[in-house]
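To close the section, here is one more complete example, presented without commentary so you can practise reading it yourself. The ligand is zinc ion.
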Amino acid sequence: MKSGSLLLKNANIITFDTSKPYISNGDILIDGGLIKAIGVGEKTDDSAEIDCAGKLVMPGFINAHTHLYSALARGIPIPGAQPSNFVQNLEKLWWKLDLALDEESLYYSALVGLMDSLRCGVTTVFDHNASPGFISGSLNTIAKAVQGIGLRACLSYEVTDRNGPEGAESGIEENVNFIEYCGEKSPELLRASFGLHASLTLSNKTLRECEYYGTKLKSGFHVHVAEDKADVDDCITKYSKRVVERLNDFEILGPKTLAIHCVHVSEDEIDILDKTRTNMIHNPESNMKNGVGYAPVLHMMEKGLKVHLGTDGYSPNMAMTVRTANLLPKLVFGDPRKGTDEVRTIFSRNNPRLASEFWGKPVGKIQKGAAADIIIVNYEPPTPLDENNWWFHFLFGVPNADVETVIVNGNIVMKDRKILSINESKILTESKIIAKNLWERFVNE
Ligand SMILES: [Zn+2]
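Output:
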């Protein structure tokens, strides 16, 4: 639903704004895609209104790393013995699935993944696409789903040499074309980054070419880094250096680059990430699922690194991911104090800062002048909620509560759990058929 000005009334607001983290019974005036005013009694005569009494109002969540192409893999049968390590997981599942994707299945995968994201209150995703059977035009296909549903996405294509030199060239071209398109047209909901799969599937020749274009376009890169020890071993064997050192030699790192995972990094590599102001993206649930280890998140933050949170496609649900990110260091270090404050910083400050840099305006906060990306959650706290304890209501209450209404760029895109821009039940009926056909191609790969 396109809205002119919109007034959210009687809202209890978690703002993610450190200067005023919680506002009780306030109003939010939205106009022109932005938050125009926050306070009591802010209204104009022609504003549409939503009464938020008894609900919790928050900024839309930001997922700093996901793979929409994986959304139709839910329940997929993997032939033969189950993958027992990271490389087998790539070879037996993801590299067969992505090869089986065509235009239609990629489009529906993106639609389904974005619908799920919206239902969990996620309004911005940083996506990393792989569809080697359908490379050229793949980012436009995902962009069509993003704009059709109406949330924000930064898109990239995973360049890799594993599908031969033509596949690598085509991946580079896809990134370049989409980065140029976003640069020329500045579509409000879309941004672009230069995607690279990971060191272990990228030759020096290909990396050199990516470095050339990424530097020329000033796009930054979106790349998996040392997710598993296999990536490190491959790099040392082939190039006698570690993954971060190799990427730094090609000038892949920098303040616009997203270095995903960074589980197996040395002290020197952490220093390189810090010195280059590279964005580290932590994906705890995916790392647990793949059994690859726990990234040195707390140590990185002590050293000043910018750490962010993503799902790696494991789940669309950022509130649950926050809960896991908070629990994991307590288990790893045997200390119930570990991670609580750091995860609050990661999610409520660093993720919004990352999106704000890509969009060139405040995104992911409820403050005057910020993008009007707002969720209304069906959460009436059973205990006092105030500016000192809001984070604990987030950790222990929000993951269990339904997101009812979602506003992106001032437009209501989901109202009372119904996504307004699309026919959800029709898409789900069709996606089941498309997924079945995709799975048949997957099994026959
Ligand atoms: Zn990933």
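Once you have examined the tokens, check your reading against these statements. The mean pLDDT is 96. The radius of gyration is 21 Å.
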